[in-house]
């Protein structure tokens, strides 16, 4: 194992990663192409769906994006606490090499440690083989109108980044087989959108955001 190998499970008070992480810092491999993912993530930032606000969530950054890589449910995801950066670069990403949902564990490499919601992304890639992109965003307007818009909503008892959230998203995927957008009931303002392409994941998210804003008029 590399001398740079890091194995961590941060405490609840850190408010970020809640899974067991085996992380080895490295560069990105040749099969990783990020241009499309970065372009859409920057659009999400411009829409206020990712970011950082000192008055919200204790000042922590919010939002993350991922894309599936070839082979065995590997995926690349934006790094922990990068949601507040106006523009991302390849050095702001992590490669999830493997995961164990039952034991709340991720093995990752790359320039950054993975986002706190990496296990939820992993669950979606495992359970929905057609999905190639996952976007986790925050929208008070859309989240507060989730029930009116008839979106699937996870239990308010399932907190962000937790095994309970993974189990709840799995349950919603089974109940709502055609769903491409889920509101996270126990994660304030949090939603997760996904699709076979980045365009599909973005379209369902922006379409429902427009519907939620129209409800306020």
Which descriptors apply to this entry?
5 helices, disordered N terminus, L-fuculose-1-phosphate Aldolase, 217 residues, 26% helix, single chain, alpha+beta
Question: How would you portray this structure in words?
Answer:
The chain has helices at residues 35-46, 118-127, 140-144, 163-175, 198-214; strands at 6-8, 20-25, 64-68, 75-78, 93-100, 105-110, 133-138, 181-183, 190-195. It is an alpha+beta fold and 217 residues long. The chain has one domain: 3-Layer(aba) Sandwich (L-fuculose-1-phosphate Aldolase). It has a nine-stranded mixed beta sheet, with helices on both faces. Helix 2 packs parallel to helix 4. The model is unreliable at 1-15 (pLDDT under 50).
